[in-house]
Amino acid sequence: MTAYDNVFDADGVAPPFDGPWVAEVPSSQIAERFAGWEPDLVDLLQVPTAASRWAVHVVHPLPTFATDRVCLIGDAAHAMTPHQGLGGGQGVEDAYILARLLGHPEMTASNVPQALKIYNTIRRPASQTVSRQSLVNGLTYGFFGVEAKALSLPEIGEELVESCRWLLQDRGAEKEWLKAKSALAAALERCKDDPASPNLLPGTGHREATREKSRYHCIAYHITRMASNQIQRIIVPDQERASQVPSAATVGAAVSILHRDGIVVLEDVVDKAAIAKLNSVLTERSEELANNPSTHFNQGKATRNISQPPPATPELMFQSVWANPFTATISAAMLGPSPRVHYANGNTALCSTERQTVHADLDHNHLRFPFALVANYYLIDTCPTNGGTEVWVGSHRDTSLADHVDSRDAPGGLSSIRPELVSERLKVLPPVQISVKAGDLVLRDVRLWHAGMPNKTNVPRIMLAFLIFPWWYQAPMKMALPYAAQSLVQRWTRETGLEFEIEWLKEDESPSKFFVTTASANEHVVYG
Question: Are residue 187 and residue 312 in the same domain, yes or no?
Fold first, then answer.
């Protein structure tokens, strides 16, 4: 949550801001600044337990954004107040025009200065217009300045509407690019006619761009409720849990947390009776599996962490686990319509003292945005004592295959993260171990760094995992299920929109062998 506080004197003039740019402040300070506002807002401001105060600095209008081969973009060129909601977008438009100019087929090192002059001619007036209007809006919102005081409330309302009307006009980055493209074509033509000309394009000469100290300042309070390396939990309202229909509030919170942190927990949204039944069945089988020579141990037998899939018989295939409505709805919001489950498995942590290496469930080049989610269902209450997974919150945002070890013979294989990177991140943002209740849903981005931890008890800790992809990703894996479950799965798809990639087996028929990988079979996917 962010609260903005415009600081002006009675005449709309801001005093210089000489305090620290960022400072931790008590949440009571925010409540005091907004005392007397609407009760709902006042109540909301009582909730936070911590807050930070940021001074919002601006750049006064510069005479140019470009000189020779150097240019400014984004906040370096036009940092502005937040009252038009367009500051970040202006930086994107800067980058778009600049990239199109520099990426032109006829662009060479020698004519870069001319391209930057075109960039300045197109983007400086547009971004500075937004900056000026944002400042005017801020003054108007707070009834600061002589002009705002002279207007009636209806007139102020009309002024604010008018300030946004230009957004609806025929403008935008694409139109600006057409102007830039035309100017570039003319400049390149002049280059052909007079290659020795040092200044082929109209534009400002060399002038020093100075950054004045702003006489306006705005304080932004960024409010948080817990440390940034903690796993965020969503307490789902009773009505939603009873109806099994996720609200926009729940989905919005889950999606935003997943993008930021790579993991989120939704409390008590899974049928506990189904969880208890599955735990009873799988626990009984776990020791038998551990003693079976063909059983796969995740990262070696010393970890005592075995692969143990959910039962594939209709009477034990519970919708609350296989096609949970919260999983389905949030997956569709993250990955697009008709998300597809390609893989269902689980891991059982038996009593052990060994841990896994830090890894991501990837051993191939992968996309740099969310392309797969893992839905985890812990069948018993889980904490660090009995093998709660170690999670590196936020590690999904800037990871790539380059972060992985380059040998299959390395501990943990190609999915393991380079030890030196783990050590570096440990200094900045250490991991945490998950603690959840049976009946909680854990969703995580497949790129997130994590590690299986030892279960120090004699009770098996079983966690089921379902791997979900966008429909266009075309993951090559399929689940093998009996024909007897076909109508059940089809009903889940009709009710939740969650699709399943399945090889349907007749009685006593053996499944095909699928290589377990999160790599895409879509040859047209572009990486990088």
Answer: no
Whose CA is closest to 11, among 147, 131, 141?
A: 147
- In the numeric block, the tokens 């033509």 are attached to 189
Same domain, yes or no: 217 and 238: no
Residues 204 and 251 in one domain: no
Judged against a pLDDT cut of 90, whether residue 338 lies above it is answered with yes
pTM: 0.58
Number of domains in the chain: 2
Do 253 and 206 belong together in one domain? no
Clarify whether residues 363 and 463 are in a common domain. yes
The amino acid occupying position 390 is E
Checking if the pLDDT of 409 tops 90, the result is: no
pLDDT tens for 94-140 read: 999 999 999 888 888 888 998 999 999 999 988 988 888 888 887 77
Residues 6+ apart with CB under 8 A from 508: none
| Residue 204: Cβ-neighbour burial (10 angstroms; 0-12, 13-18, 19+) | middle
- β-strands 479-482, 502-505 pairing: parallel
Distance CA 303, CA 305 (A): 5
- Mean pLDDT across the stretch 45-69? 85
Contacts of 520 (CB under 8 A, 6+ apart): 367, 371, 473, 474, 475
Q: How confident is the model at residue 15 (pLDDT cuts 50, 70, 90)?
A: low
pLDDT of residue 13: 59
Q: Is 524 left (phi over 0), alpha (psi -120 to 50) or beta?
A: alpha
Could you tell me if 209 and 99 lie in one domain? yes
Long-range contacts of 164-171 (CB under 8 A, 24+ apart): 164/84
Q: Is residue 209 a part of any domain in this protein? A: yes
Indicate whether 209 pLDDT > 90: no
Query: Look-up: residue for tokens 């009946």?
Result: 439
Q: Residue 461's domain spans which residues? A: 233-470
Q: What is the mean pLDDT of residues 190-206?
A: 46
| CA distance to 3, 246, 352, 455, 460, per residue, from 452 (Å) | 40, 30, 11, 9, 14
Asked if 360 and 419 touch (Cβ cutoff 8 Å), the reply is no
Pair 103, 165 in one domain: yes
